[in-house]
Amino acid sequence: MRPSGALATVMLLVLIQILSFKPIHAEESGTVIPAESRPCVDCHAFEFMQRALQDLKKTAFNLDSRTESLVLRAEKRALCDCMPASSLH
Fold it and tell me: Cα 12 to the chain's mean position, in Å?
């Protein structure tokens, strides 16, 4: 399965979202959370990427399913256009 243009666009948008993400520092919000009770940045990034990849897989599956359906409809329409109706029964 090769990525479609829509899938590549979605992947690019997710990458831009990740690169432009700016965390809010605890000092700026007025509350200090002890380091030992905060998850590490890598853990947050990993979880975010896992969710993003799951969403991409669902989107890719839906696009593949719709594409397959449209291709079958187009092939059926082309077949019906070039064959007489009596030979299709």
Answer: 10
